[in-house]
Write a structure and sequence with these properties.
Layout (H helix, E strand, L loop, with lengths): L1 H4 L3 H7 L5 E4 L4 E3 L5 E9 L5 E12 L2 E4 L1 E2 L6 E7 L6 E12 L7 E6 L3 E6 L1
Parallel strand pairs: 2-10
Antiparallel strand pairs: 1-3, 3-7, 4-5, 4-8, 6-7, 8-9, 8-10
């Protein structure tokens, strides 16, 4: 019986590894400002015990272009940055992406990444 499940073991172990949860901390609507830059903030949590938190590289992606996020000082698991809205623009779609390493049995740390759903920022007068 065990022999039938042994080939599935790697799949079952990896199935629990992509459990990142993104929490957008930015309002979906912001007032227009002169520089057309708008702050975004996200919390990222994962129950993946092998995730190497010190290896995380966080990005906000707008129009397919990644822009780095920086960790919020003194607050665990939160990152912040800015996104640009073209002059005269009223909405912009964006998502968050986190690249990181995780510990793997008998191997050097392996790369992985997770992305959030797409969010929309609406600029109002």
């Amino acid at each position: 019986m065990l022999k039938r499940f042994l080939p599935l073991l790697p799949v079952l172990l990896l199935a629990g590894c992509t459990t990142g949860q993104f929490t957008r901390l930015t309002p979906s609507q912001q007032s227009h400002n002169a520089d057309n830059l708008y702050p975004v903030e996200v919390a990222f949590d994962s129950n993946q015990q092998a995730l190497r938190w010190d290896s995380i590289k966080a990005y906000v992606i707008v129009d397919g272009r990644p822009q780095p996020l920086r960790p919020v000082p003194l607050v665990r698991n939160r990152w912040e940055g800015v996104i640009a809205v073209p002059p005269g623009g009223r909405t912009v779609n964006y998502k968050f992406k986190f690249d990181y390493l995780y510990n793997s049995f008998g191997k050097i740390p392996q790369p992985n990444s997770e992305s959030s759903k797409t969010y929309t920022l609406k600029v109002v007068e």
